[in-house]
User: Fold this.
Amino acid sequence: MFFSECREIALVKNMQSNVDYRKLMKESGNLMDSILNKLDKDSKSLVFQLEEIQNQKAGMDIHSVYYQGIADCIALLKY
Assistant:
């Protein structure tokens, strides 16, 4: 729980301070709006399903990298 909260705080700080990140977020939002405006209701649903799956995969990737970092850190400390 502690590590999860620390990660959330780090992400929020990154969003607030990283100009490039904020620019990409705005750009991706604008692109998504443009795409959705051109689609019918069923197609929009498919886009949202794809987005949800991609978010879940990204979360799993972040989780594994994070815990691998902890394992590596512990191994280095033991060494």
